[in-house]
Amino acid sequence: MTAGTEADPAEQAPSGRAPIRKALSLSALNTVISKLGTFVTGIVLARLLTPEDFGVYAVALVALTAVLSLNELGVSLALVRWPGDPMRIAPTVTTISLVSSGLMYLACFFGAPLFADALEAPEATGVIRLLCVLVLIDGLTATPEQLVNRQFRQGVRLLVDLANLLITTGVTVGLAATGHGPWSLAWGQLVGNVLSALVLFRLAGMWPRPGFDRRYLGRLLRFGLPLAGASLLVFGMLNIDYVVTGRVLGAAALGLYLQAFNLASWPVNVFSLVVRRVSLAAFARVQEDPAQRQATLGRMAMLLAVPTLPACVVLGLLALPLVTTVYGQPWAGSAAALQFLAILGAVRVFGELYYDFLVALGKSRATMWLQGGWLAALGAALPVGALLGGIQGVALAHAGVAVLLVLPVYTLVVARTGISVRLLAGSVLRPALGALAVAAVLVLLRVLLEPSWVLLVAGLGLSGLVYLPFVWPLRRKLREFG
Predict the structure, then answer these.
(1) Distance of alpha carbon 53 from alpha carbon 252, whole angstroms
(2) What is the pLDDT of residues 199-230, one digit of tens each?
(3) What is the overall mean pLDDT for the chain?
(4) Measured between alpha carbons, how far is 478 from 285 in angstroms, rounded to an integer?
(5) Which of 30, 74, 386, 405 is the most buried (most CB within 10 A)?
(6) Higher pLDDT, 58 or 306
């Protein structure tokens, strides 16, 4: 690679509020389309597949998430916050990504039988090997994907994700309808990711081009390895419940728990995802300005709180009518876990915001220690929950650790960067009060009505009417975000 002087950061990314507002709008549109499609697909698949099928796929998904957490060693995020021309490090990042993804897939392929046996699901071995091919695709797409994020080009992400949704849905539903069980989920993901990767390369104007410059290697690894360690710990934190549930309660219980966890993750997968596609780059732009850091974090927190808090209240208090209406009576057992996992979903949304804020400030080691503490606490709490309360006990233990330990510690660490917790709390006060009002209404409705679609419809309608007056005055602040 040719040596040269680092360019001014202002020359590398759009400036001003407009790019962030536009990126957030496109990210929101992308998320609404993709998650609505995923939701509808999930309803169809719940009618075509059994809880045991979902349990086998869950085992493969845990394995995939494990290797993805360490893939590319965390170095691709350096492209977003690099204080100079990111194209100087892009070939080196690409090389690290390709080499690490190849090694990760080999480990996954040969370790699949042991992993499947450990989770009491030996039939998942082949599904694991197939699904983990996505690790190789992730290594190929890491560099162009992060460069697109740095440049706030969420229109590209919209088209790529739309292509992925259409292809994955078509293949998965088609195979499930013809009796391919958990294999339909794996093949759908693989075909969709391969073709959407080609769309990404074309629209981003960048195909994988490996290179190597040892001048950047040490700096990249010093930044990326703590993030990779934190990502591995995040994997452990988000998947140890699957491991405990599968080993202690069996594949059918794991399938029910997976469905509940997927529903509870909607606030994370919708609202948090919209913001996270933009937040790291936005925080990186103001990392040297304490006042702008406070303002940006407060606006992001408000933007997330407005939809997240009432959504989690509805998921928790209307869990049973929601599950039975959407997925059918055979999945009613998952409601016992959903009512507590909804609380975890809210904590995860704000935890991810804090995570991105700390990463943008270069505090990747702090994030690793935080995730490590979260995982250690879950390792002690979840087995007890499973033995005492089944999937409901697992969910309650998960939510308890998040609320009583993780959120307070995360807030403390963020406060030590100079953020005023009082001002941060003020930015989410109205949504929090509105969510409490919604909770009161739903508790009353649960007393008056049986858990059915009538309760679900009435609860959703009244929740909106009660919540809107609390957040309507915030509309101008939300429009001014950027």
Answers:
(1) 8
(2) 888 888 878 788 777 777 766 776 666 666 66
(3) 82
(4) 20
(5) 74
(6) 306
Tokens of 56: 């086998």
pLDDT, mean of residues 241-266: 85
Residue range 97-137, pLDDT digits in tens: 888 888 888 988 999 998 888 877 888 899 999 988 988 88
Torsion angle, CA of 445/448/449/454, rounded to 10 degrees?
-50
* Spatial CB neighbours of 161, under 8 Å, sequence gap ≥ 6: 30, 33, 34, 196
Asked if 227 contacts 96 with a C-beta cutoff of 8 angstroms, the reply is: no
Amino acid at 214: R
Contacts of 332 (CB under 8 A, 6+ apart): 320, 323, 324
- Retrieve residue 181's tokens: 């069980």
Task: Write down the pLDDT at residue 7.
Answer: 36
Dihedral angle computed from the Cα positions of residues 93, 366, 243 and 123, in that order, rounded to the nearest 10 degrees: 0
Does pLDDT of 32 surpass 80?
A: no
Q: List Cα–Cα distances, 480 to 21, 300, 303, 455, 476, in angstroms.
A: 8, 12, 11, 37, 6
The answer to whether 89 and 79 have CB atoms below 8 angstroms apart is: yes
Written in H, E and C, the secondary structure of 385-435 is HHHHHHHHHHHHHHHHHHHHHHHHHHHHHHHCCCCCHHHHHHHCHHHHHHH
Do 6 and 88 form a contact (C-beta atoms < 8 A)?
yes
Length of the chain: 482
Nearest to 127 by CA among 197, 84, 175: 175
Find how far residue 70's CA is from the centre of its chain.
Answer: 16
Note the pLDDT of residue 13: 40
- Contact between residue 63 and residue 107 where contact means Cβ atoms under 8 Å apart: no
